[in-house]
Structures are given as structure tokens and as C-alpha cells.
Specification:
With 77 residues, this protein is mainly α. It has helices spanning 2-22, 43-50, 68-71. It has one domain. The longest helix has 21 residues, at 2-22.
Length: 77
């Protein structure tokens, strides 16, 4: 019984360490607080400028491009 609890605790510690390490990666930049971005509230609003062939297209290495507001947040004052 003691070895079972030790195994459970060890697994919990490993999961906690992995979670901590994975959450320390590069954070997505904030949405700029300029007049262009003030009205953007949807992914479609982002695509107006950031779709391929537009003013500021995203790089090919950018993660999934259909979830802008999941990663990019507005800065809280």
C-alpha cells in the first residue's frame, strides 16, 4: 500500500513539473492598443489585415491561424 501511494505522489510531481515547464514557453504578444486594433473583436477582424496577401500577413510558421483571440489578448489597464 505504501508503494502505491509513493507511485501516485511521484506521478503527481512529474505531472506538475511537466505542466510548469510547458507553461513557461514564449507567450503570444498582446494585441496592440492602437486605433486600428481597438475595434477588433473576432478572428474575422484580424483576417482583414493578417490574411495571406493582405497588409500584414502572418508568417507560414505561425501556429493555427483561426484562433487569434485564444492566444492574443488585450492588455488590461
Amino acid at each position: 500500500m505504501k508503494s502505491t501511494w509513493s507511485l501516485i505522489v511521484a506521478a503527481g510531481v512529474i505531472v506538475a513539473i511537466l505542466f510548469f515547464v510547458s507553461s513557461r514557453g514564449k507567450k503570444a504578444p498582446y494585441i496592440p492598443a492602437d486605433h486600428i486594433h481597438q475595434t477588433v473583436t473576432t478572428q474575422e477582424g484580424c483576417a482583414v489585415c493578417h490574411a495571406p496577401g493582405k497588409q500584414s500577413p502572418l508568417k507560414d510558421t505561425h501556429p493555427p491561424k483561426e484562433q487569434c483571440l485564444t492566444c492574443h489578448k488585450t492588455r488590461k489597464s
